[in-house]
Each structure stands twice: as structure tokens, then as C-alpha cells.
Amino acid sequence: MRGGARRAAREAYDYLSPRLGAPPLSSNGHERAAEGANEADGPLSAACGRAVYTRRVLTRPFGPTGVKVSVIGQGTWHMGEDRRLKKDEIAALRLGIELGQTHIDTAEMYADGHAEEIVAEAVGGQRDRVFIATKVLPSNASYKGTLAACERSLKRLRTDHIDLYLVHWWSGRHPIEETMRAMVELCASGKTRFAGVSNFDVEQMQAAQATLGKVPLACNQVLYHLRDRDIEKDVVPYCKRERIAVVGYTPLARGGFMRGAVADVAKRLGKTPRQVALNFLTRRPSLFAIPKATRPEHVRENAGALDFTLSPRDLSAIDAEHRR
Ligand SMILES: NC(=O)c1ccc[n+]([C@@H]2O[C@H](COP(=O)([O-])OP(=O)(O)OC[C@H]3O[C@@H](n4cnc5c(N)ncnc54)[C@H](OP(=O)(O)O)[C@@H]3O)[C@@H](O)[C@H]2O)c1
Fold first, then answer.
1. DSSP at 315
2. Residues with CB under 6 A from ligand 1
3. In this predicted structure, what is the pLDDT of residue 56?
4. What pLDDT sits at residue 258?
5. Residue 193: how many other CB atoms lie within 10 Å
6. What is the pLDDT of residue 23?
7. Counting atoms of ligand 1 from 1, which one is nearest the CA of 297?
């Protein structure tokens, strides 16, 4: 990892580690997506060998934007850190796009901007198919700093607009009014289509929305996996009420666990535990997930997470086991 990236990753780790270790809280119950959460919305892809992996990923309206965004997207944290993996990372993102995982999440923090460059290479020639989210570091999130960071991201992403620009986490350094004033300006100029936040609690979201004025808060990107369902307590209900999209990061808990109820359900349905987990985590209309995968078999597996329906019994079994 390069110097700046290492520093930024440490800063992020300091911020995130208490949350990553946090115990799960109970669910508020289930709710199927009104549009039919598990219907495939596209043709089978020739890029895949097995039927279980071949459906295109479902899209649904993204919060208040009305834009249809893939429910399962692609993360990019740690991409761009090792030059030897560059080809594989670009190929993985391209495969994901081919399979319909067109919501790509990155950040200026990731590999000190090199992840954005990987995204640019993967997206080349198909910008219109892709919904790109990137993030400004809180340390850069002054008014002028946000504008400048956005320019740098645009350059690295080789695009004239970002679809979704997020504050990576609440800044203790710069007032939210300043950051959001820049976000409003970026939306007005078309440099970013939508503004959002990441790792904000309800109070912080309210403060962000208040300072955004007429620009709607499009999303909150937050930690969400089977062992950490903290957001179901307040963030998810608030976002549902306010029509804000909730994008769950680290949905596979970095590839780990997947035993017990989730594995039992997967076995019965002929799916994999991770497909069941992703399906469960996106079971409500406001929920999206952005797993990161570099291995093609992982990309294919994740892309096949929505072509089946979890029954109320399946949902309850998973809910009960992962409830505190
Ligand atoms: N806003 C924030 O503060 C924040 C914080 C963390 C993450 N994020 C975003 O969320 C994205 C996802 O989170 P994450 O990268 O922390 O964790 P994750 O997506 O839960 O896990 C990524 C790991 O799981 C592996 N994996 C992916 N699909 C798999 C599969 N089907 N079977 C087995 N292993 C699989 C990947 O392996 P391979 O790569 O080898 O395929 C990688 O090692 C990030 O990349 C980033 O874009 C945002």
C-alpha cells in the first residue's frame, strides 16, 4: 500500500474498527420489495457458465433520485493497491458490469486515488451504463476542499460527472454546512448528479439534509452485514420514512462466516450462503449492497444473489439466528 493510502486507511480503520466489532442488534421485521425483489430484470449472460450465476442484477429506484440503480453493486476498497492485481481488478469490475452490477463504489481514499483510476479503466467506453459513487475524505471536506477533491476524482475517473458524491464519514474538522454548500454547488454545476453521506447517524443525516436545502439527501452508505445489523434500529426506519437509499457496505463481512441458518437455507435453495446473505440484506426497497470482489467466481456468485426468493420462513430463520 502506498504512503498516503496507508495513512488514509489507518484513519478509516480508526473510525470504523469500533463499529466493525460492534455486536448485532435486532431486526425490525421483514418487508419484501414492492417491485418484486427477486425478479431478474435482464437476459442471461453469455459471460457465465452456470445458470445460478447468470441472471442480471435487479435494479430499483435509488432513494429520492428516481434513478434505477443495481441493488447489488461493486465495491473497490483495496483495489489499486497492488499493481500486479490491476488487470484482475479491471476484469472483475468489467465482468460485474456485464452481469448488471453497474453501481460502482469507490473513494478518493482507496489506494490514494488509484482505485478511482481502476474504475476509470473498467468503465471506459460504457460510462452511460454505470452509476459511479465516490467519496470525499472528511479531512478534505471544507467548502473549497470538497470542490477541489471532486475535481481530482473527476480527473482520475476520467469522466465529466460523478453520479453520487458522498462525505466518507462525519467530519470533526469541517462544519457540515461547508461540505454541503459545496455539494449543492457541485449538483448545480452537474459535476455530480446526487449528493449523499456515509457512516452518518440519524442526527447527522438530519443536519446534512437541513444544510442541503432543496437538494435531496440521496443515500447513506453504512456498515451492514449479518453480524452487524445496528442500522436496522434507527437508520433504516429513518431512511424509509425520508425515502433515502441505504447502501450496505462490507455486506459479506469480508468473505467470512456464512454458517448456520444462512448455510441451511442456501443448501435447500441450491444457492450459496453468500447469495442468501446478499438477498437477505437487500430484502427491503430502500436497501442496496456493494460487495467487493476481484475473483471472477466471486463476482458471478454475487451477481446471482437476487434470482430467487427467500420465503418468510427463510427470512425468519436467518433473522432469529442473527438477532441479538
Ligand atoms: N463507506 C465506508 O466507510 C466503507 C467502508 C468499507 C467498505 N466500503 C465499500 O464497501 C465495499 C465492500 O466492503 P468490503 O470490501 O469491506 O467487504 P466485503 O465486500 O464484505 O468483502 C470483500 C471480500 O470478500 C471477498 N468476496 C467477495 N465476494 C465473495 C464471494 N462470493 N465468496 C467469498 N468471498 C467473497 C472478496 O474477495 P476477492 O476480492 O478476492 O474476490 C474480498 O476479500 C468496499 O469495497 C467499499 O467500496 C465503504
1. H
2. 75-77, 105, 168, 198-199, 221, 249-255, 274, 290-295, 298, 301-302
3. 63
4. 77
5. 17
6. 27
7. 31
Cα–ligand 1 centroid distance for 29 (angstroms)? 26
Helix (H, G, I), strand (E, B) or coil at 128: helix
* Closest alpha carbon to 137 in 269, 264, 301, 8: 8
**Separation CA 195–CA 171 (nearest Å):** 16
The model's pTM:
0.87
pLDDT tens per residue across span 17-41: 433 332 222 222 223 332 333 333 2
Which residues are part of the catalytic machinery?
Answer: 110
Nearest to 152 by CA among 53, 278, 165: 165
Contacts of residue 280, defined as CB under 8 A and 6 or more positions apart, other chains included, come to 226, 262, 310, 315, 318
Task: Look up residue 105 and give its three cell numbers.
Answer: 463504489
Q: What is the DSSP string of 141-203?
A: -SHHHHHHHHHHHHHHHTSS-EEEEEESS--SSS-HHHHHHHHHHHHHHTSEEEEEEES--HH
As a residue count, the chain comes to 324
Beta strands in the chain (DSSP E): 59-61, 68-70, 103-105, 131-136, 162-167, 192-198, 217-223, 245-249, 287-289
| Euclidean distance between CA atoms 251 and 229, whole angstroms | 10
* 10: number of Cβ within 10 Å: 11
Domains and CATH numbers, the chain: 52-321 (3.20.20.100)
Q: Which residue has the cell 481530482?
A: 152
- Which residues, given as ranges, of the chain have pLDDT below 50? 1-55, 324
